[in-house]
Amino acid sequence: MKILHCPLNGPRNISEFVCGGEVVEMPDPGAATDADWSDYVFGHENARGTVREWWFHVPTAYWFIAERDTGTDEILRTYPASEIFGRVPP
Amino acid sequence: MPLGLIRHGFRGGRRPRRALPPAVGLRPRYDVAIIGAGGHGLAAAYYLAKDHGIADVAVLDKGWLGGGNTARNTTIIRSNYLTPEGVRFYDESIRLFRGLSGELDFNILYSERGHLTLAHTDAALRTMRWRAEVNKHLGVESEMVGLDGLARLCPHLNLGRDVRFPILGALHHKPGAIARHDAVAWGYAIAAARRGVEIHQNTEVTGILTEKGRVTGVETSRGRIACGKVLQAVAGSSSLLATMAGFRLPIHTVPLQACVTEPLKPFLDPIVVSGSLHVYVSQSARGELVMGGPTDPYALYAQRPTLEWKEGLAAPMLALFPFLAEVRVLRQWAGLADMTPDFSPIMGLTPVENYYIDAGWGTWGFKATPVCGKRMAETVAIGKPPAPIEPFALDRFAAFRQLGERGAASVGH
Ligand SMILES: Cc1cc2nc3c(=O)[nH]c(=O)nc-3n(C[C@H](O)[C@H](O)[C@H](O)COP(=O)(O)OP(=O)(O)OC[C@H]3O[C@@H](n4cnc5c(N)ncnc54)[C@H](O)[C@@H]3O)c2cc1C
């Protein structure tokens, strides 16, 4: 069983969670070109190495942020979205 | 001890024929570099040489020939898809597969078994009727069968109603087949090498060289080579290569696992897939049951199998074939599936001139090996994708013209 530390519920089986994808900043819908917008909708870094993602604890409907290594399947850090919300560095 | 055999052994000139010429150094320049010596890259190299007379080709692989998803897949070949573009494309592949052992002079053990997709819900039945109609319209053999038909086609299947999701019917696709995956890779490799293509294993591409938006060469772990055109066919590593070339893809790399049991006497002729239960099984020529299920739940580049996946497979598999409870699993493994949001592949041009892409094959690309190789070779040779693969272009996403195959590809592979 792989354990993920939920900032709200503590260590839980990873099967209780759903991955919500890379943390990305939404382009300004008024100013974005079609190409920017489709890249925002469909494009992914899909990096091998450290990634920062949205995760969701299904039983408690709680969204948070996890950093993990996609090369080694290690979870590096989890924290509430409030730590970065509205302040996503480039 | 048969003395004749010993004498035979000492007589000269009886060395086994080398399948591939000995490895040579990289030359400074090639007309075409193909990144990835999986089935797709090797098939493209073969058709480039055979159909287009372009044999100054280097196929580069960071590992060994056919060691990626090609050697890890469960080899289901079928054309019962949902979109007309998809059905036509995969049907062309089946026609190529049927003649492939002869064409390559290499037995790929192509075996037409029939393919059953089980329905356990009304919604599944509806999608299957839709698929059957699209298929028949395009001349592909697909029929709905009820429980009587199922009992005839697959007598060992549990059709009882005492399970959580009883079977209601199935989509029967007669041309459904399996083949020997390594043989497909080796057959293409040998036939391509005979025509002058160089295959360089243990040669990792680490950078893509461009000038004014046009590709000029690739950087490898064994040095730099210049080339006129480049084709990337690296499955799970697609995004990594695209990033080197300077563009992004709508792809997630997710492990896909499979396993085989110990060999049993032949009892299972058709390939059996349950989309609702997320499992599928076929019996190989060696008698092993080759079993697969859903992709892993999150993106990852680690090819490790998990206990959770095996447990998740066992329960629904036993609902279909309860007598397998005593059968042991021999091997379990994972490959890296390059998943697109619409469950269709990406073939054709990229934002970089003369740099072509063959990606997004997710869990379903083995069956496309011949047709994709042939059509990508055409694309590279002519510099423009031929009509049958135009709908699969990378720019379909920017135009919001996706090709939704989820209903036919999400579990069926
Ligand atoms: C468990 C499993 C079951 C499957 N079942 C089916 C099925 O039943 N039917 C079906 O049709 N499809 C199935 N698939 C999908 C199918 O296996 C793939 O879509 C198909 O094999 C892709 O072939 P390829 O040649 O494009 O990729 P691969 O065979 O993966 O070849 C890509 C090659 O690129 C090389 N490479 C990567 N990065 C670099 C680099 N930087 N430099 C040089 N080389 C590099 C790799 O070493 C690899 O050899 C399955 C896949 C898996 C994992």
In a nutshell, what does this entry contain?
The complex is a heterodimer of chains A (90) and B (413). Chain A is mostly beta strands and 90 residues long.
Protein topology:
The complex is a heterodimer of chains A (90) and B (413).
Chain A: E1 3-6, E2 10-13, E3 17-22, H1 34-42, E4 50-57, E5 62-69, E6 74-80
Chain B: H1 3-10, E1 29-35, H2 39-52, E2 57-60, H3 84-98, H4 100-104, E3 111-112, E4 115-119, H5 122-137, E5 143-145, H6 147-153, E6 169-173, E7 177-178, H7 181-194, E8 198-200, E9 205-211, E10 214-220, E11 223-232, H8 238-245, E12 252-261, E13 271-274, E14 279-283, E15 289-295, H9 307-320, E16 329-339, E17 346-349, E18 355-359, H10 369-382, H11 406-409
Task: Give an account of the 3D structure.
The complex is a heterodimer of chains A (90) and B (413). With 90 residues, chain A is mainly beta. Chain A is 10% helix and 41% strand. Chain A has one helix spanning 34-42; strands spanning 3-6, 10-13, 17-22, 50-57, 62-69, 74-80. In chain A, the strands form two sheets. A four-stranded antiparallel beta sheet of chain A has the order 3-4-5-6, with no helix packed on it. Chain A has a two-stranded antiparallel ribbon with strand order 1-2. In chain A, strand 4 (50-57) and strand 5 (62-69) form a beta hairpin. The longest helix of chain A has 9 residues, at 34-42. Chain B is an alpha/beta fold. In chain B, helix 2 (39-52) packs parallel to helix 7 (181-194) and helix 3 packs across helix 10 (369-382).
CATH class categorisation of the largest domain in chain B: Alpha Beta
> What's the CATH H-level homologous superfamily of the largest domain in chain B?
FAD/NAD(P)-binding domain
CATH T-level topology of the largest domain in chain B: FAD/NAD(P)-binding domain
Identify the biggest protein-protein contact and residues per side. Answer: A-B, 23 and 22 residues
The number of helical elements of chain B comes to: 11
Within the CATH hierarchy, at the fold level, what is the topology of chain A? Folate-binding fold
What profile does the largest beta sheet of chain A have?
A: 4 strands, antiparallel
| Strand content bin of chain B | 15-25%
Low-confidence stretches of chain B: none
